[in-house]
Design brief:
By secondary structure, this protein is of the alpha+beta class. The chain has 13 helices and 45 strands. The protein is globular and about 95 Å long.
Length: 732
């Protein structure tokens, strides 16, 4: 056994390297090196409080700090406070630190609906942002209508050390800069919408379980949002539990299924997850009994308050383990027999490939299986018939159709949509039979003709689920016969409806419409041909004092695979205010569809806003720069998202403090009446005028007939009178 002599300098150094963690009565410390990918001390020494979900990994190059790590911090024991020191050895780029109550956080406070307890503190480029829990009343504490509580620019830089302190319902931060003796500091305290380490009951989803998730040079949910520049992190747990407290000594009357939490004067009892009560008495309850446990379809309760979500047949569970996604593809396999048997006798793979390729092209070009169905590469099978002593060549195809390429009634569920695709495929098969009976399926290659033998078409069996009730199908078809091209039969309303914008129907008596392919849409409803699908363009340079921006095809679903870029340039001496009534984007695991606003095209520039999922409440923003770069990207195959409409207006810089006081007041978003006003497009122009120009505000006196916004006027009036220091007797 080695012995260290304290008289030896080497012994002291070795002792300090091996005993880096200070696990005593009041403190525990661990250091994560994101350059070498090491943990000091080893992860085993602190695994009771720090669990590494990912990493740490080493940097990709010695001169970079882009190693990543995701840790889960456990506050269920005696440690109730944490200090996180972020040491930047390189210039901070993108997501360098993300600390959240939810493991599904993916940047800018957004998460996949895992839990309402989703407070977050994030460092993005040189910005520090604090986001709130989405509990009842949280809107009164935000500054933008979503969940942003505080934001600060130029908080970190190369060489800076930033410290973030987190306790129950409080967060504080400070930064020491390398070339300045001054420091930046701020805090938010006593808010239940911040990190809750006392197992606060969530409004939806699982409780926090006294865990906090911290990701470095990435976000907790995945490395699709990552960054670089953070070289080292030191995490220090601290006790706030006195040795003589009731929780420490056990002299409390908490239930055995509750946990004791110390307070400044005494203690409080909190029931464990899966139990309800006042803490003195806790009774086990079924989480599925409240809002179905947050599950979209089926919620199953297990022992200890745990539960799991599952989906009905035909759906699969979303990665967030709560929502369900439809399996939107059907296919049928058919087989045809060729008269010539040369492919069987030939050893040349090229001849076989050419025959299959040409046959596939013919089928696709005969208006039988054109858009929106597709045929993957067919394959040829040769069999030897012993009875007649000859070879038979059979060609096998799979016809596939995806639900995203047809537009159905909004009342049509997954089974209904699948049956519509089954019906469409049956019509395609009928068309193929006509081609084979008329000898129109043949391939000529090197002077030799290969023809599909008559009546050799074999197709997989029809679905009994869709075609079992023949009487009902007959009744439906009787009504469908009345639908003309450009219309479809709505199975719920039982009448013919116009195809929506972005879709068309060239045939009669159909119960769906085709979606326009690629980045195209129609000018109006009721399109009858694919030629009416027009290219959709978006983006541009905007220099007007006011205007709006919309996603392509808004308010109908936007096409996939688009990228729109707008530049708003404000006149000299003016700022920019934006209002978004709502936004509809699909929920994807990698934020494939997202909207971002920043100073310029550089991803490292000052950012105003970022979003990659839907929200229904209005959101208003003041640009953090004079000019604004807005980029919208769509890569998902979701066909239901409607996109967004952004209204903007410029204002004189001298009114910036007044505009900020109006826009960043949580009362504007917490009041349901004011939220409805902000979403009324007929009133938005007037609302923006009142917000940014006090002279116009005085034109809307409460007693005048044109004032149709008494609640909004009263809200703004208070801000204006405070800004100008107007006394009641000064008003005319």
């Amino acid at each position: 056994m080695p012995v260290f002599h304290f008289q030896s300098p080497l012994g002291i150094v070795l002792l300090l390297l091996h005993i880096k963690v200070l696990q005593c009565a009041n403190k525990l410390e661990v250091e994560v090196d994101l350059q070498s990918g090491r943990v000091i001390p080893s992860a085993d020494a602190v695994k009771t409080h720090v669990s590494f979900i990912y990493g740490p990994t080493s940097s990709s190059a010695p001169d970079r700090c882009d190693g990543q790590a995701v840790v889960r911090l456990d506050f269920s024991g005696p440690y109730k406070k944490i200090k996180m020191e972020l040491m930047y050895g390189k210039e901070p780029r993108l997501w360098t630190a993300s600390i959240s109550s939810a493991p599904t956080t993916y940047g800018f406070g957004w998460n996949y609906g895992y839990s309402s307890n989703c407070a977050a503190a994030e460092v993005y480029n040189d910005q520090f942002r604090v986001y709130s829990n989405k509990l009842p009343g949280f809107m009164y504490h935000v500054t933008d209508g979503n969940s942003l509580m505080a934001v600060a620019d130029e908080v970190v830089e190369k060489g800076a050390n930033m410290t973030i302190d987190i306790t129950d319902e409080a967060v504080s931060w400070k930064t020491f800069f390398v070339n300045s003796s001054e420091r930046y500091w701020d805090d938010i305290k006593n808010s239940r919408h911040l990190f809750t380490l006392s197992e606060q009951e969530p409004a939806f989803g699982p409780p926090t379980d006294s865990f906090i998730y911290a990701a470095f040079n990435r976000v907790p949910y995945g490395n699709f949002h990552n960054g670089s520049g953070l070289c080292k992190v030191r995490i220090t747990f601290k006790r706030e539990l006195g040795k003589d407290s009731s929780c420490a000594t056990g002299s409390n009357d908490c239930d055995k299924n509750a946990k004791c939490r110390p307070t400044k004067r005494s203690f409080k009892c909190v029931c464990k997850p899966g139990y309800r009560g006042d803490g003195r008495k806790c009774i086990e309850y079924d989480p599925c009994s409240v809002d179905n446990g947050g599950c979209q379809h089926v919620c199953r309760h297990s022992i200890g308050g745990h539960f799991s979500c599952s989906c009905y047949e035909g759906f699969e569970l979303h990665p967030n383990k709560r929502d369900c996604m439809a399996r939107g593809e059907v296919s049928k396999r058919f087989r045809v027999r060729l008269t010539q048997v040369s492919p069987c006798k030939s050893k040349s793979q090229d001849i076989t490939d050419q025959i299959l390729s040409k046959l596939q092209t013919i089928v696709l070009s005969q208006d039988v299986c054109n858009f929106p169905c597709k045929i993957p590469k067919p394959y040829l099978r040769c069999r030897h018939l012993k009875r007649v002593d000859k070879f038979v060549a059979s060609v096998n195809f799979d016809i596939q159709m995806n639900q995203n390429v047809i537009s159905t009634s909004k009342f049509c569920n997954n089974t209904c949509a699948r049956c519509q695709m089954e019906e469409r495929l049956q019509k395609l098969i009928s068309g193929l039979r006509i081609l084979t009976d008329n000898n129109r399926l043949n391939v000529t290659l090197s002077g030799e003709t290969f023809t599909v033998t008559k009546r050799t078409l074999r197709v997989t069996k029809e679905s009994d689920q869709c075609f079992g009730d023949k009487d009902r199908s007959k009744r439906k078809i009787k009504w469908q016969d009345r639908c003309q091209p450009g219309k479809y039969f709505d199975v719920y309303l039982r009448k013919c409806m116009n195809c929506s914008r972005g879709s068309y129907q060239p045939n009669r008596s159909e119960n769906f419409c085709f979606r326009c392919p690629d980045n195209k849409t129609t000018l109006d409803t009721g399109a009858t041909d694919i030629s009416e699908c027009l290219e959709t363009y978006c983006g541009g340079n905007l220099t007007s004092m006011t205007g709006n921006i919309t996603s392509p095809n808004h308010p109908d679903p936007y096409p996939k695979g688009i990228e729109c870029v707008w530049h708003i340039k404000c006149p000299e001496g003016r700022g920019l205010l934006l209002l978004i009534p709502n936004i509809s984007l699909p929920l994807t695991t990698d934020c494939s569809d997202h909207l971002i606003m920043r100073e310029n095209a550089s991803p490292f520039s000052k950012t105003t806003h970022y979003v990659c999922e839907s929200f229904t409440d209005p959101l208003s923003l003041i640009s953090r720069s004079k000019d604004l770069y807005i980029k919208f990207t769509s890569k998902s195959s979701n066909a239901m998202a409607e996109g967004f409409k952004i209204f903007y207006v410029t204002f004189e810089e001298k009114w910036r403090d007044l505009v900020s006081a109006i826009v960043q007041d949580g009362d504007l978003y917490g009041n349901s009446s004011l939220r409805r006003i902000l979403q009324d497009e007929n009133l938005i122009t007037r609302i923006l005028d009142i917000m940014v120009d006090p002279q116009k505000f005085f034109e809307y006196e409460p007693t005048r007939a044109q004032n149709k916004l008494p609640e909004f006027y009263a809200f703004v009036e208070k801000k204006v009178t405070e800004f100008f220091d107007i006394r009641p007797y000064d008003r005319k």
